[in-house]
Q: What sequence folds into this?
């Protein structure tokens, strides 16, 4: 698998895959060398970089019942990129906004760290403070895999966040018809939709890192899929058009926002929170999501009140 994005065929002479991996190693080595002390993030904070985080709210109405309950509240965040390029104030604000959403369920879509896995310790302590009665679940993103996927997953687990890699979890009553299905990253992980969806309940909430995970899902049914990865371009034109598109075959088509995919399937792509490569966002402000899934009411039994 291509460590920098894609399950394409090896190029002429069979060297493209190896060259891409070498380029990624060289890039990470250079980034580690020049970002000691997190000076880019500290410089951005010193220059007054904004720490505001938008809360984008979505309501998804289903033609199916969730179970005994009529609504499920989900908080979603992705792309924290705790590391050299994301100021601490931005991370603190994102956690406060997630706490204010006061959701039933917290879903985290990957890219927790950049460059060094040690940064996960600070982020894990922040995430551990977020209350979610139905649980906190996560999948890894490409930067987590590039940095040290097993270490990041271990620190998430230590913070009380359950890894949902290629598996699903059934929600307890009153959400008897709901499963949350998680997928590994499309380009750098090993996504297995068969394993994630096998035996899942009729109402499926999908947690994934990137829009390109839709290619792994194929024509399987789901209610809503939540992801990040794209940063909305991180630097974009005033109309939101990204100047740089994140790697992955569907990142341009589904850059940010809500997309009705047909057959009752909804994709929501978050711009995420942190910064990658440079400590700057422009016309692509950080955001977390508040999603309310509204189920069809079950008919009341005769004689019940």
A:
């Amino acid at each position: 698998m291509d460590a920098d994005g894609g399950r394409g065929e090896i190029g002429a002479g069979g060297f493209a895959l190896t060259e891409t991996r070498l380029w990624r190693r060289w890039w990470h080595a250079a980034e580690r060398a020049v970002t000691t002390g997190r000076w880019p993030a500290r410089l951005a904070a010193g220059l007054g970089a904004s720490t505001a985080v938008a809360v984008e709210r979505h309501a998804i109405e289903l033609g199916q019942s969730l179970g005994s309950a009529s609504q499920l509240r989900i908080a979603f965040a992705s792309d924290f990129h705790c590391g050299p390029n994301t100021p601490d104030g931005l991370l603190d604000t994102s956690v406060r906004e997630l706490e204010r959403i006061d959701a039933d369920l917290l879903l985290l879509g990957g890219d927790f760290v950049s460059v060094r896995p040690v940064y996960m310790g600070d982020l894990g302590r922040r995430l551990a403070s977020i209350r979610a009665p139905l649980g906190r679940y996560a999948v890894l993103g490409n930067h987590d895999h590039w940095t040290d996927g097993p270490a990041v997953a271990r620190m998430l687990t230590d913070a009380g966040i359950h890894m949902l890699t290629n598996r699903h979890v059934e929600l307890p009553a009153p959400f008897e018809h709901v499963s949350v299905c998680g997928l590994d990253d499309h380009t750098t992980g090993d996504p297995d939709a068969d394993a994630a969806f096998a035996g899942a309940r009729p109402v499926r909430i999908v947690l994934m890192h990137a829009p390109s995970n839709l290619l792994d899902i194929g024509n399987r049914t789901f209610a809503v899929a939540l992801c990040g990865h794209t940063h909305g371009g991180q630097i974009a034109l005033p109309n939101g058009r990204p100047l740089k598109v994140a790697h992955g075959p569907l990142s341009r088509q589904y850059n940010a926002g809500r997309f009705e995919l047909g057959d009752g399937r909804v994709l929501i792509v978050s711009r995420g929170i942190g910064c990658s490569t440079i400590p700057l966002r422009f016309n692509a402000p950080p955001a977390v999501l508040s999603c309310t899934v509204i189920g069809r009411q079950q008919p009341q039994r005769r004689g019940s009140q």
In short: The first strand starts at residue 54 and ends at 61. DSSP finds seven helices and twelve strands in the chain. The radius of gyration is 19 Å.
